[in-house]
Amino acid sequence: MSNERYLNALQGIAQKIPPVWMMRQAGRYHKHYQALRQKHSFEELCKIPELAAEVAFGPVDEFDFDVAILFSDILFPLEALGMGLKYTDAGPELGFAIRSKEDLAKLKSVKDSISFMQFQKDAMKLTRERIPKEKSLIGFVGGPWTLFTYAVAGKHEGNLSLPKTLTNVRKEFLEEIVQFLKANIALQLEGGADLIMIFDTAGGDLSPALFEEIVVPGVKSLADAFPGKVGYYSRGTASPHFQSVQRISSLAGYGLDHRWDLRDVFKTEKRMIQGNFDQALLFMEREEFKKTLIDYLKPFQDLAPSERVGWVCGLGHGVMPKTPEDNVKTFVETVRETFR
Q1: Left, alpha or beta for 310 (phi > 0: left; psi -120 to 50: alpha)?
Q2: CA 193/CA 191 separation, integer angstroms
Q3: What is the pLDDT of residues 149-200, one digit of tens each?
Q4: Boundaries of each Uroporphyrinogen decarboxylase (URO-D) domain copy (predicted)?
Q5: 67 closest CA partner among 121, 11, 24, 15
Q6: What percentage of the chain has pLDDT greater than the value 90?
Q7: What is the CA radius of gyration of the chain?
Q8: Regarding the domain delimited by 24-271, which CATH topology (the fold level of the hierarchy) does it fall under?
Q9: What angle do CA 64, 234, 182 make, to 5 degrees?
Q10: CB 241 within 8 Å of CB 203
């Protein structure tokens, strides 16, 4: 079984109460995660399926989210392809960078590397068994362009000058990673996911023209391979970017950050739309936070359910470290009270 509200959002069925889930809902802010992290490394939590299932279960159990999400990381495909990967206090570190044709030649083939990702399929199965039957389960992969920025620069920050200018290796890398991600998505769907999100956090760093050239073909290829089973989220994108991905008819829907007015999006889009309360506002004192959240929800109350078809209520981006847990709980409860 899956969550009725979430399936309604995916299928374009109007409903009074939107489903709720948050990116990074199982992360560092949560005491359930922190307790597990004291005993295990981040990699163990991701790669040992029983632990990944337990991490994903925690916020669904405590906050009653409608959806659980695979606990993993977007960079494991780079490790699978032979780039090496370790997590330090300073962040993830790859064994080498992709800067030349010679570097590309070091990568393993998809055929020889995809079995590395079996732990995600197993984690998906165990998470499905761990969460209540009336909850949905989704998976995710990193966007091809975002994975390229990490492969080239080792991180996503700054103006991304190297990823934007290494045109001699970018096309070949993107072709390879798209094929890998297709196999990766298939594994997660086989594990029981209702939907796979593409998280392309570096997408908004591109101009609309480069976004159309670099990002859209890969996203379209992934969505076309699994029609209605893949959603797309990119932080910091603007209307021209969104219009580019909106034309991909095989996408199940989109996540939009807090820079968007979703009421405008609902006028032209009837697929799943996820978002988009500003995640930083969860640091407010409880009463001020609740008032701010109610004010955010009021415009949605003015819409008939048929006018906000597909809405999945959540944050503009992910839950930030040290976010007060009580406000996360208040968010879920307030959304349901408001629309009940």
Answers
A1: left
A2: 6
A3: 999 988 777 678 899 999 999 999 999 999 999 999 999 999 999 999 999 9
A4: 19-28, 138-154
A5: 24
A6: 96
A7: 19
A8: TIM Barrel (3.20.20)
A9: 85
A10: yes
Look over the chain and give the mean of its residue pLDDT values, rounded to a whole number. Answer: 96
- Whole-angstrom distance, CA of residue 182 vs CA of residue 146: 16
Kindly report, residue by residue over 39-60, the tens digit of the pLDDT: 999 999 999 999 999 999 999 9
Segment holding 329, helix H or strand E: helix 325-339
CB within 8 Å of 194: residues ≥ 6 apart: 2, 6, 7, 10, 136, 137, 138
Averaged pLDDT, 233-260: 95
Closest CA to 198 of 216, 172, 213: 216
Rounded Cα–Cα distance for residues 119 and 165 (Å): 34
Q: What is the pTM of this model?
A: 0.96
- Alpha-carbon span 295 to 315, nearest angstrom: 15
Hey, how many other C-beta atoms are within 10 angstroms of the C-beta on 320?
15
Give the 3-state DSSP-derived string for 19-36, with helices as H, strands as E and coil as C: CECCCCCCCCCCHHHHHH
The ranges assigned to domains in the chain are: 24-271
